[in-house]
User: Fold this.
Amino acid sequence: MTQIDLDYAPQPRQALLHGTVANQIFYGGAAGGGKSHALRWDAIAFCLENPGCDVYLFRRTLGELQDNHIRKIRNEIPAVLGEYKTNEQRFVFYNGSGINFCYCEKEQDVHRYQGAEMHWLGVDEASHLTEYQLTYLRGRVRLGSWAPKTKLLPRIVFASNPGGPGHTFLKKTFIDGSVPEELFRDGTMADPKNPDDEGWLSVFIPAKMRDNKYLASNYAGQFSALPPELARALTEGDWDAVVGAARHNI
Assistant:
């Protein structure tokens, strides 16, 4: 057996994401906090640990997917562990697991995934999707007859900066009324036929620029020309600084 070392050492907040027992996680806050990197590696870890795991990783547009995830995973994962199938937009691992790279640029694009069985769902920059798109995709997350090796599946991970059409949904679901990094039950995910079901075990993990030791020390200065509220939202991860902007692409 050959040992393969992967080039990823999670920083403390990223490690919180990977280690939480919550089935629904929101990793949100400041720009440059390492959210996208951690999101992708959470998907990779579940694929490697659970043969046959079907992962779906979303961004709003195909271009964003290519720039932020597809090109990077092709460099990060050695060929002995898997390969990227261009025609399928899917990275296939040696053990039968796979990461499907998906996008929902228009409101109705989520309907392409109506029949999908998502064992792990990740949405990068989740606030760029609408509440309808996010809640629709959550409804595709299930295990079916597949039995994973870990009890942490099914799993939903949203990562995002403040602002955008999904801002209000993310804030009211994960931030309002909860304590950062403490587990809580999301009642909107409860089984209406089971009065004892309190909903999915969830957690909000805030992201700050200081969480990322690889970020340039003057990075926050790049946002100084923005309106003060938006600059504060992006540099401090302040979800009260801006409100969501409605956007529906029909």
